[in-house]
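User: Sequence in, structure out. Go.
Assistant: Echoing your sequence, followed by the structure tokens.
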Amino acid sequence: MPISPAVFILTVCGIIAIVAGGTIGWAVSEARKGNPEHLVFWRSVKLVSAILGIIGLVILAVNIEKTVRDTVGGKAREYVFREFFDLKLYTAKHVSIVCSRENDSTEAKYECGDARNIDNALTSLNIRDFTPYGPFNWPRLPSQDTKKFMDEVNRRVSFINGAMPTAATADSFLSDEQRINFLFVAALVVVLALAGSIGESLYQLVIAIAQQHKSEASHGQR
């Protein structure tokens, strides 16, 4: 039985909260002891925390890249699909009207053939592969209606072609599952970095307070 998104999010947040509470609690507990012999240890913790913070930022930056692609490229892709669908409806309607009278004359037959050729050239393969369409021009002189139809198709195609480069960027090297895993890892890394920073800062504070009390006691004896 697949897990629901709400349960998954609550589970992940619960794990992160447990890890955060445990690591920060341990760091605070150890740092409050203020053992001078642990100075090198806490300095090492500070260094590791800084490194983990950098790693966390890099992972988050990778996920931001995916978010930007989804926001910008996704809207462009939606626009391309919608415009292509509207264009196919337009060409199908024109073909049905023109070809209904193809037996009236030779010119009407040519006009129907031209309309069908344009309609058949508008394939979904270009949309799938994000390959721009070429301009629709025929060697022979088209009729007035065909010329008007061709100009309208070229106008709409130019809009589709213009949005294709941006739409193609919606694909990312990260899948949605990998993105979720990266976010989970980034959250854990940031929590560990935060715990180390809090522990080291508290340790330095405890040592500084102890030294201040020692200095005050020394001055008091004098």
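User: And one key feature?
Assistant: The longest helix spans residues 39-99.
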